[in-house]
Structure formats: C-alpha cells, structure tokens
Amino acid sequence: MPRFKTILVTGGAGYIGSHCVVDLLEAGHDVVAIDNFANAVGDEEGSPALQRAEQITGKKITFYKADLLNKSEINDIFDKHQIDCVIHFAALKAVGESMQQPLLYYQNNLLGMLNLLEIMRSHNCYQLVFSSSCTVYGEPESLPITETHPTGNITNVYGRTKYFIEEMLKDLSAAEKKWNIISLRYFNPVGAHPSGLIGEDPTKEFTNLMPFMAQVALGKKPVLTVFGNDYNTPDGTGIRDYIHVMDLASGHVAALNLISENHVGLKVYNLGTGKGVSVKELVNVFERVTGTNIPLKYVERRLGDITAMWADATLAKEQLGWTTKYTIEEMCSDFWRWQTMNPDGYPKKNIKASVIINGKS
C-alpha cells in the first residue's frame, strides 16, 4: 500500500486533474476530488470525466462540488476525511482571458491557494504537490530551460499568479519547516487517455491549440487560427514543449512518491519532453497521423505570448525517476481518438452520478 493513502485532488474534474486521478487510483491511492466546474464539465450531480475515470480503473472516487474561495466548504471536507496529501490543480488557466480579466485570476488563483494552505495547516496536512507552469520563466534568456532559470519576468497575468504562488510557497516553507512541497512546472499538456474515454473538453472560447485543431479536422470549425507567423523561429510560428497528459499525470505520482518517503522542504521540477515543436510542425504531424486536412489562418500575435520554450527535464529524471514515454505522434493520435469518440466532448446534461457525491453514493 502507498504510504499516503488518501489524496485530495483540487480541480479533479478538469483536463489534467482527471487524467492524474486515473494514475493515482491505479497506483493504489484513495482519491477525494473537488471541482467548482469553472474549467470542467459537470454539475451538482457530478463529473462525467470522473465517472469515466472510475470506468477506466474500476475504482470509486469521492467527489464534492466545492470552491476554494468558500473556506467553510473546504474545511468540512477536511473534517470528513483524513487527507494525507493535496495535489492542487484548481486554477483559472487561459492566458488570453487572464489579460482581459486580471482581478478574476488574482482572486481565484491566489485566494484559492491561500485558503487551501490555511485549511491544510489547521488539519495538520503539510504535504502538497502544486500544479505550476513554465510561464513563470517568462521570455527565456536561453534554451532549454532548467529549474535555475530566473523567474518573475512574466508576460501574462496567468503566469504571474503561478509565480506569486511559488513565492508564497517559498516563504511558507522557509518559515514553517513542517511543509513538504513539490512544485511542478508544466510545459504544454496535450493528448488524452489512450482509451479515448477522457480528454480535453474546453468550456471557454479561450482554448488550447489541440482541441481547436481537432474541431477543424472534424469540420466543426472552418479554419485553425494561428496567432503569429512572424516569430524568430524556422517557420515563423511559436515553439513549445508539448507533453502527453498521461506523462504529466505520472509526474505527479512520482512527486507524491518522493515526498511520501523524504522531507524535501520545497522542490521545483520541470515536466516536459525537452523537445521544441512549432505550431506548424504540430499541425503537420496531426494531419499526417489522422489523415485530415487543417486549413490555417494567421492573425496577429496574442498579447502575453512568447517566442519559444522547451524544458530541460534532467532534474525530474534524476530525482523523481520520471521520464516521458509518449511521442508527438501518440499525443496526436490519442487526442484524435478522444475527439472522434466524443465529437461534442462530455455529455453536458443528465450526468449519472456513479461517483460518490458529497460522501454519499
């Protein structure tokens, strides 16, 4: 049995959260998941993503519709369960939206984290894996990026919220030595569970590249909008480090394993493949793997975007024993399987509550 039995997953019904829940259940953990459905499909009756995570694993999830801005709601959940560790995904995450609604992002991401930390401390739970982002590095001075690269010179509000939280965690772990925290700086998650049962189903117009691309491939959208083709890159489009969501999920289990056996204080790890792929290259691979055609329309760069970014993930390999397993082709084929099996995403109404809702079946 794993040393940490019960894991609280905030934002558990979301894209990355739901895939991580699958890995946690398969590793033998019990999962209590919360979500307010700001970024995920679901309602008071439950979450289709978590229902399908149960289907994949054959295990039960305890789920609460709850918001981190409501302290009493979260406190009640900690009162009901002996939480050994928290994996904190819950955050608003769209770069474009963050530039238009900064106060919304500061309120949700910073206050949500603050409330969570205070409640954890009051329940003697000091183990945390935090979902951070490579956006904390800003426009990189050199590539690939290691964890020692300077942070803070950030080009968008979303990234600043992640940076401020990392600074908060630094101060907290320095002042209170009980805390045992790993901050995982994600690069660009794509793909879906190989079963095709769970995947990314954006709830807002500010969407990531691959869901938009798949909608064009399905004929649901006429053209893929590419923001900027005048970057200083070989084909003029931005370069990112795309990582399969299941590789990202396994990174969280590896982080959990490390803090369950060691007191690390605060550690930071990059989770990426170490390879940069341009938007145009990703489109070409997607077309080749899926046999589809994706017309492109180039528009001006988005405020807050950077030119190129890819990881040096050596530290995660050395200290977490973690490496990526999936290729860019598999990222595309797995996402296409999810999208063709679920052309409209998750069912939006009459979600059957097979998950345990608010502690009751």
TrEMBL record:
Quaternary structure and partners: Homodimer.
Protein name per the record: UDP-glucose 4-epimerase
Key word Isomerase present: yes
Known EC number: 5.1.3.2
Membership in a protein family: Belongs to the NAD(P)-dependent epimerase/dehydratase family.
Sorted UniProt keywords: Carbohydrate metabolism, Galactose metabolism, Isomerase, NAD
Gene designation per UniProt: LOC113521672
Source species of the chain: Galleria mellonella
Entry-linked InterPro entries: NAD(P)-bd_dom, NAD(P)-bd_dom_sf, UDP_G4E
